Structures are given as C-alpha cells and as structure tokens.
Amino acid sequence: MCFMSITDSELLQFIQTIQSVSTYDLSEYSDKSLKRRITKILMDYRITITELLRQLKVQPRFAEEIVKKVTVNTTELFRDPPIWLALRTEILPKLAQKPIIRIWHAGCSTGQEVYSMMILLSEMGLLNKTELYASDLNTDAIDAAKAGVYKYKFNISYLDNFDKVIRSDVNNPLIVRNIPYEKYMTIDHAGDKIIMNRNLLEKPFFSKLDLVKDKNLFQVTFDLILCRNVIIYFNYSLQNRVFQLFYDNLYDKSYLMLGVHESIIGPFTARFEKQGYYYLRKG
Description:
Helix content: 40-55%
CATH class of the largest domain: Alpha Beta
Strand content: 15-25%
Number of strands: 10
Oligomer: single chain
Largest sheet: 7 strands, mixed
Radius of gyration: 20 Å
C-alpha cells in the first residue's frame, strides 16, 4: 500500500470528522504536525485516508483512540537539565518565601516531569508546602502518570539527568552529592521497571484538561506553570489563547516555563518578560 502526502482538503475533512464525532477541536493545531501524524496513523493501521475517515464516522470510540495518537506525549525524567538547574537556582529559591507554592504542569503527558519536580522540591525542603496540579488531554497518559511506573531500559539514560540536576553541587561542580535513586523510586532491573515511591504518587492532583477549550479547572492561581513542548504543535492564534489562559491564572511576578525550542511571540511579549530559560509575568 502506498501512502501519499495528506492534502489540505484531506486534512480539513479529518478535522471536521473529528469535530462531528467527538468533543475535540484540532482546527488550530499546526497543519504540518497534524499531516505528519495522520500519515503515521495511516501507515500504522495500513489504511487509506478514505478508510480512516469512514471508520471515524462509524466507530465513535475510534475517534478517541486517534486523537490520542495525534496529540503528542513526549517526556522524560529531568528533561533538559539546564532548565531544571534554572528552576533549582533561580525560580524555586524565590518561591520558597511563600507560605504555599502552587505549580501547574500543563500537558504533563505520562508524568515524568511531575515526578522530577517533586524530587527537586523534596531536595530543597519545599515539597510539603507545595500543591502540584497536572493535566493532559490524553486520558491514557493521565492514567500512566498516576501509576508512576516506567520502563527502566527506556529511561536508564535519563537517570544521568537526575545526576546532573539532583546530585550536582551548584556551588562546586567537583562535588557529587550522595543521593541514591532509591530515595525516590524503586528500580526493578529484572522486571524492567522504575516505580515511583508512594509518597510521590499521593502528592499531585491529575486531571484531564483540553488547553484548546477548557478553562483552569483547578480554580487556583499559580506561582509557576510549566507547559513544555506543547504549544509548538499549535498555530499562532491558539498559542496566544493558551498564553492568555496562563497569564490569567498566574500571580503577578510569577513564572512560565516553556520548552527549549518554544517562545512567546506576538501580543504577549508585552505581558511576559523573558529571563533566560523562563518567562516572568508582568503586572
């Protein structure tokens, strides 16, 4: 079977079909990203775009499955260590003065970023006074995040990130702090599993949330929002709607962290000040 590139007309039919059989609106996702992911779906299922559209119409539950494949779920423990070192040395020490710290991981995927944050907060003595909220569009990803069980062999290289962020001494790079992985996780070599400790599993509040159409379902204001490697898949208009959502739900002089290849452009450059790896909300 030969898989041709998705045309603009076929992309529009796909978006309209998803809208007609589900609650999802993909109309403001990046066309390039959607076309790439639809093509992969056609290859994985070995069907044509015509057959995909037909199945979406006759099997409503199939739409949920396809949306999960279209949306992105990429994360890892302490992904991009320089980001985490900025959190450790620049952001969290300032938030430490607050009686309660509220953090939202928007687009948390399978949760490794959330557990990374809890480990860092614990090492800084801030975990007990922090409220952690995490959301994603994909309910399978949310379930995986709640379980906190990951493939060991897949994640083994990411433990190097743990070393760079948690074991390093920021004042003296020659010093390595003796902090065992087992303090926060069980590593089952035979079972190929990393299992997060129960005290971490019980801390965050996870919820399904669609950044395209939902408001802040948590009904609290945040000191820090992390939305990393998500908005790159949205078009300009949707990006700015999401920035509005974040701006409206951050305290003044609080923080927004995007992915290393993401940035704020357009009207919200006047409302957020770029400071290294993160943005500061202006009044």
